[in-house]
Design goal:
Low-confidence stretches: none
CATH architecture of the largest domain: Alpha-Beta Complex
CATH topology of the largest domain: 2-enoyl-CoA Hydratase, Chain A, domain 1
Helix content: 25-40%
CATH class of the largest domain: Alpha Beta
Number of helices: 16
Radius of gyration: 24 Å
Distance between the termini: 55 Å
CATH superfamily of the largest domain: 2-enoyl-CoA Hydratase, Chain A, domain 1
Number of strands: 18
Strand content: 15-25%
Shape: globular
Length: about 500
């Protein structure tokens, strides 16, 4: 590892340790853990990641990851809390880069904290680099730009929240900003600011003077109630349907919404219905000679194979596979004493499936055999005219795999925001969970590292999501008007093409 990499990691470490144990004004709600117990947990965490996480070195070199593992270990001290230790672990987890990485508080502690009135009450949303309130709460109006919370500047808050919001496939932060607008916000602000009895909010409506307001902390369920009555919900619910089809005959345009691939596995009734739906849609497109097809997959965080591939078969003109390579680094579950199955017998079932599907051993990696990665052909009803793929920062997993296939073919115009899911590949498919022995944190990740069946493109650097050809995002005015301005601008673009 060169001197520059070492210097960057050292600065990274100093910053991460310095941000631990920020002050709380309601006392210490989490008990300190012993250094010996934390070191044991940390070493168990590292061993599990090294033995089971196939994507550990996908975006970073082994030397860089090993150095961060070593450096973060030096942050561990006597009496650190779960909150402190969470940050130490999550710095490493996030650094490795996978949208399927997770880390959960122990259920008992999570339940105890949720009953205390210590959480920030106001839903927030990130728009064009700024934080805005997503609901009027007490004396803080909807649509106010946050300047500071308890003296911490908004940009500092954004930077710290992006650590916890979600991991992305690689280096981009698009999804991290988008996930500020979730019901996880209050917990993530607890991780950043600590437990608080009240929050001093410095905020301003556009064109108005900045105002300081104190808001009382709430229990977590009260924040969730506020979140579920957030202003942006009206617009977001328009993107909540799994799939639907709309024609705009005056523009010779149709819109196919597919906002989730959580539909049903092959041979299920749900999958059969989905296939019938797609057949009917693309038959209609062909019979009516529709010129423009908008495929809207905003908020599609993935789902069940092969729902993504089935849809792509109606849009492509080439034979394709889901991936060009897929491997695990085990087929017998390592550290079984810490493995957390969903049901009795799951571990044995997993091992049996791995030995059937990933049984080509090469250089310590268990590659998938072609039986589970068949060659797909274009559907006979495949759309031949202009495709517009509409994406956003929440597209991931099977959603981003689908988007990468569509972009790779270079027939579609891709519009929207960079996805949090990767263009060239991701680590997904099979989720596993482990419980760390002392802290009882639940460590989750997926175990299959795969390279998607895409071509290298000049605007697609490794570690980035799908990059739109035409960037369009939610504006403040769209947000306040509860208007889908993104779709409106896509339709305007189509009108200009006539």
């Amino acid at each position: 590892m060169n001197h520059l990499t070492k210097l960057i990691l050292l600065i990274f470490l100093l910053n991460s340790c310095a941000l631990i144990s920020q002050s709380s004004n309601v006392g210490r709600l989490e008990k300190g853990l012993s250094k010996a117990a934390l070191l044991k947990d940390y070493d168990t965490f590292r061993s599990i990641y090294e033995s089971a996480n196939a994507g550990l070195y996908k975006y970073r070199t082994k030397a860089a990851v090993d150095s961060l593992f070593d450096l973060q270990r030096t942050c561990i001290k006597e009496g650190l809390t779960h909150r402190d230790f969470f940050k130490i672990l999550w710095e490493v987890i996030d650094f490795t880069g996978s949208s399927h990485n997770e880390l959960g508080y122990p259920a008992r502690l999570d339940k105890r904290l949720s009953k205390r009135a210590i959480f920030f009450p106001i839903p927030l949303i990130y728009i064009e680099g700024k934080l805005y309130t997503n609901k009027t709460v007490e004396e803080v109006p909807l649509g106010s730009e946050i300047q500071t919370i308890n003296g911490v500047e908004a940009q500092n808050l954004i930077n710290q929240l992006t650590l916890y919001n979600t991991s992305t496939d690689g280096f981009n932060k698009s999804g991290k900003y988008a996930f500020i607008n979730t019901d996880w916000l209050a917990f993530h602000l607890y991780l950043v600011l600590g437990a608080q009895a009240e929050f001093e909010v410095l905020a301003a409506l556009p064109g108005r003077a900045t105002k300081s307001t104190k808001v009382v902390a709430v229990k977590y369920r009260d924040f969730v109630l506020n979140f579920y009555s957030r202003h942006s919900k009206v617009l977001e619910e328009k993107l909540a349907s799994t799939y639907k089809y709309t024609r705009l005959d005056s523009l010779s345009t149709a819109i196919l919404d597919v906002h989730s691939f959580v539909i049903g596995p092959p041979k299920s009734e749900e999958y059969a219905d989905y296939k019938i739906f797609l057949d009917s849609v693309f038959l209609d497109l062909k019979n009516r000679e529709v010129k423009h097809l908008i495929v809207d997959i905003r908020k599609n965080g993935g789902g069940i194979d092969p729902n993504d591939l089935l849809l792509y078969s109606y849009l492509t003109q080439r034979p394709f596979r889901e991936n060009t390579s897929a491997f695990t680094i085990f087929n017998d579950v390592p550290f079984a004493a810490h493995y957390l199955p969903d049901y009795k017998g799951e571990q044995a079932e997993l091992e049996e499936e791995l030995k059937a599907e990933h049984n080509l051993l090469k250089e310590g990696k268990y590659f998938q055999n072609d039986t589970y990665n068949p060659l797909w052909q274009p559907n006979e009803l495949a759309f031949q005219n202009q495709i517009y793929l509409l994406i956003d920062a929440e597209v991931a997993s099977a959603g981003s795999l689908f988007a990468s296939l569509v972009k790779s073919e270079q027939r579609a115009i891709v519009i929207g925001e960079e996805t949090l899911g990767g263009y060239y590949g991701h680590t997904g498919h099979i989720p596993v969970a482990y419980e760390l022995p002392s802290s009882k944190f639940v460590l989750g990740f997926s175990i299959v590292d795969l390279e998607q069946d895409v071509v290298s493109l000049p605007d697609q650097a490794k570690g980035r999501g799908i990059i739109p050809d035409i960037p369009i995002h939610l504006t403040y005015d769209d947000f306040m008007a509860q208007k889908d301005g993104v779709m409106a601008r896509v339709l305007e673009y189509i009108v200009q093409q006539h």
